[in-house]
Amino acid sequence: MIRVLLADDQALVRGALAAVLRLEPDLDVVAEIGTGTEVLAAAQRTAPDIALLDVQMPGRDGLTVAADLRRALPGCRTVICTTFSRPGYLARAMSAGAAGYVVKDSPPEQLVDAIRRVHAGLRFVDPALAAEALASGASPLTGREADVLRAAAEGGTVADIARVLRLSQGTVRNHLSSAIGKTQARTRAEAARLAEESGWL
């Protein structure tokens, strides 16, 4: 049996996914979790083979949790199952240690196939998203530019961003200017929105 931990903050989606997986004779859903902060403790308690994680969850997002699981439970492999079919999220998921990435509007058979492949030591990426990721390339933003855009997305002034990130206001302006140029935006708010839509933040 392949032991699966399922984490999704939407109860209806979580229940539907669990029901689909329980129809398979070789899959056993050993935990259903609603927040990212609960995943690690539940995984340590139930010893799953696969953690099926949503990206956006309360507490800790699925990408952060994937990295936590890779460090704490290297025998548990992660599959991201999300509504976000964005190349940036795919790249971040793979660098966090996820071995699979499935979009929620995929057929149930594809999710089951992904779980089995990842359990067998392979990787699985939604084919359409894989093609899009190859076409779009990696994020053009540096880590610090992404940090500054994240802070800018919350609507603070340059002084606010500088204080939060412990940078000078001039450094914040430089990073914002660079990020605006790289995203081909007109304003920092538009740059933050475009970067978020691309999955770079």
From TrEMBL:
Q: Which PROSITE patterns match?
A: HTH_LUXR_1, HTH_LUXR_2, RESPONSE_REGULATORY
- Domain Response regulatory, by residue range, is 3-119
Question: What are the UniProt keywords, alphabetically?
Answer: DNA-binding, Phosphoprotein
InterPro entries per the UniProt record, alphabetical: CheY-like_superfamily, Sig_transdc_resp-reg_C-effctor, Sig_transdc_resp-reg_receiver, Tscrpt_reg_LuxR_C, WalR-like
Note the SUPFAM superfamilies from the entry. C-terminal effector domain of the bipartite response regulators, CheY-like
**Record-listed 4-aspartylphosphate modification sites:** 54
Report the residue ranges that make up the HTH luxR-type domain in this protein.
Answer: 134-199
Coiled-coil annotation reads: none
User: Which Pfam families has this protein been placed in?
Assistant: GerE, Response_reg
Name of this chain's protein: Response regulator
Organism listed in the record: Streptomyces andamanensis
Q: What is the lineage of its organism?
A: Bacteria, Bacillati, Actinomycetota, Actinomycetes, Kitasatosporales
